[in-house]
Amino acid sequence: MAELIRVVLAEDGVLLREGLVGVLSRFGCTVVAAVGDAEALLAAVAEHRPELVITDIRMPPSFTDEGLRAAVTLRRRQSDLAVVVLSQYVQEEYATALLDTGDGRRVGYLLKDRVVDVQDFVTALRTVLGGGTVVDPEVVRRLLRRPKDPLAALSPREREVLALVAEGHSNSAIAARLFVTEAAVGKHVGSILAKLDLPPAEDTNRRVLAVLAYLRA
Question: Per the database record, which ranges form the Response regulatory domain (predicted)?
């Protein structure tokens, strides 16, 4: 790693933040700012213009995705800024959101468990700074196992019917809109439920579950 790489670090956990400062200092980095929330991260980057940003995903005040949103904002402002985000858990959607910024290069998504292996962590930082992309192996495995689009098996007409169901229309209202019989709509709905693998059950509303599948897709 080149000497005196300027780093802005964002991590709300004081012990981990101080530990990372020490690790980075040992490997040719100078931490120009170490902050504990996303707002301070954005301000520090604007002030110090670092070569590398390392941020936790979950930070105050809501501890949801403040760090990730800050990272995406920074990448949109400066697409070549090297950014590495750290996460306590495997969350594929966060990795995807980060990789969608810029050209997908000079970014990293690592689980915090990997940080304890200092050499691996430093190697990942070097890769990102060198223009590469680093995604935690466990995240990659989850992405590869991600199920296919559940709506892929539906015909265009069935998709149309499901969209109208999602808008809250009854079978009779859908029939009127599509100029078909209500019985035809009923058959389409039955086919949709079968293709989405939603068998009859006493404690679930299959129509609602079909709508949820549509919204997720």
Answer: 6-127
Query: 53-72, pLDDT tens digit by residue?
Result: 999 998 888 888 899 999 99
Burial 151-162 (b: 16+ CB within 10 A, else e): beebeeebeebb
Burial class (CB in 10 A: 0-12, 13-18, 19+), 141: exposed
Q: Directed axis angle between helix 66-77 and helix 38-48, to 10°?
A: 30
- What pTM did the predictor assign? 0.66
User: Residue for token digits 């070097």?
Assistant: 126
Lowest mean pLDDT among 64-73, 77-86, 191-200: 191-200
Q: In what order do the strands lie in the sheet with 133-135?
A: 29-35, 5-10, 52-56, 82-87, 107-111, 133-135
Q: Which helix (H) or strand (E) holds 191?
A: helix 182-195
Please list the helix, strand and coil fractions of the chain in percent, rounded to the nearest 5, in that order. 50, 15, 35
DSSP for 137-176, written as a single string = HHHHHHHHTPPPPTTTTS-HHHHHHHHHHHTT--HHHHHH
d(CA 89, CA 94): 10
State both tokens at 130: 């060198």
Reply yes or no on whether the pLDDT at 143 is more than 70: no
CB atoms within 10 A of CB 88: 12
Amino acid identity of residue 32, one-letter, is V
When pLDDT is averaged across residues 135-145 and rounded to a whole number, the result is 74
